[in-house]
Specification:
23% of the residues lie in helices and 21% in strands. By secondary structure, it is α+β, with helices and mostly antiparallel strands. It has a single domain, classed as 4-Layer Sandwich (Chorismate synthase, AroC fold), CATH 3.60.150. The strands form five sheets. Strands 1-2-3-7-4 form a five-stranded antiparallel sheet, with helices on one face. Helix 1 packs across helix 3, helix 3 (140-151) packs across helix 7 (336-361) and helix 5 (236-245) runs antiparallel to helix 7. The model has no long low-confidence stretch (mean pLDDT 94). Bound molecules: flavin mononucleotide. Residues 66, 115-116, 132, 135-137, 140, 247-249, 304, 306-308, 331-332, 335, 338-339, 342 line the site of flavin mononucleotide.
Amino acid sequence: MRCVSYFSGMPGNSIGQSLVLTTYGESHGTQIGGILDGMPAGISVDLSAIQRALDRRKPGQSALTTARKEEDLVEFHSGIFEGKTTGTPIAFSIKNKDQRSQDYGELATVYRPSHADYVYDAKYGHRDYRGGGRSSARETACRVVGGALAALVIPEVRITAWTSSVGPIILSEDWQNLDLSAVDAHPTRCPHPEKAAEMAAYIEQVRDQKDSTGGVVSLVATGLEAGWGEPVFDKLQADLAKAVMSINAVKGFEIGSGFAGTQLLGSQHNDSIEKDFTTTTNHAGGVVGGLSNGAPLELRVAFKPVATIGKEQNTVDADGNRVVLEAKGRHDPCVVPRAVPIVEAMVQLVLADHYLRNKKYKA
Ligand SMILES: Cc1cc2nc3c(=O)[nH]c(=O)nc-3n(C[C@H](O)[C@H](O)[C@H](O)COP(=O)(O)O)c2cc1C
């Protein structure tokens, strides 16, 4: 049933309170970009480091990702002068170059199952269907730029994400037993060489079958002090959940023991507190009562198998006529490796935002 509210606007393009990232742009428009407002003045910015962060997300990095080739060169327009932030809004843009909009002509009227085509039409009545328009994960490039800048606000915090599962291939080792400096050593971004090879083989298999697969990104952040967050609606875990759940194709968020914690007794689950206020275990995942407790922040993010696949699928067009769709265009058979820097970016933004909010309340 269509709930047509044609001529609706599309607000909700910003995240954060003290550090606010706003993004704009569509997949096949001339450019995408953003404004990061609230960066303190005087922070040194190494522009090449921001570009390196962006390069980790870009398409065409390996045979495991989409063949779309984008240079993804970020240009800064304001807020940085002589290598340092000025405290004014930082505006940036990234040109779209390798559009092949003709591949998407069919999607003007045919709705891809489990993609945003139908709901955009139902809500807005008019949409840029090329490459998924605003619903495309191309937008997430702006999040990575924002996150890399946000990370400069909290240099003492070390945030690392990695691929911990792809389809049925699961890496269950604790992060303490992994070499997290090796995340980028393999195109899957799994820091365990044997599991990484299994994951790559599985992604290649589903790609050859014109299908897609999902997986999980795990993340750990160390170096947080106790007390970041707010105790009620803006709990740290609530803001983290919103931030990562806003990434395209995310279907689940867990912190600490997550759903598995329901299987433990309270006596097993409680994190005992030591004399120095550290805890012996970390079922909390670094947050209690909405506030960081100084333990590592540990979270996991579930990505679905992406919608656009070359296999035949039954769907309908805008008039409700049955259509068999074999999607053209270039698509990631598994977005998880490219999602690793995006998850990091969202956590960088949330932690920097709460750090700045927390600072304000200090006498
Ligand atoms: C890095 C990345 C790349 C993506 N690439 C594709 C893609 O090639 N094809 C596709 O159908 N979805 C892709 N997606 C997911 C869609 O953008 C997303 O599923 C769609 O907008 C519908 O939203 P939802 O899945 O969050 O409900 C990608 C997601 C990410 C994070």
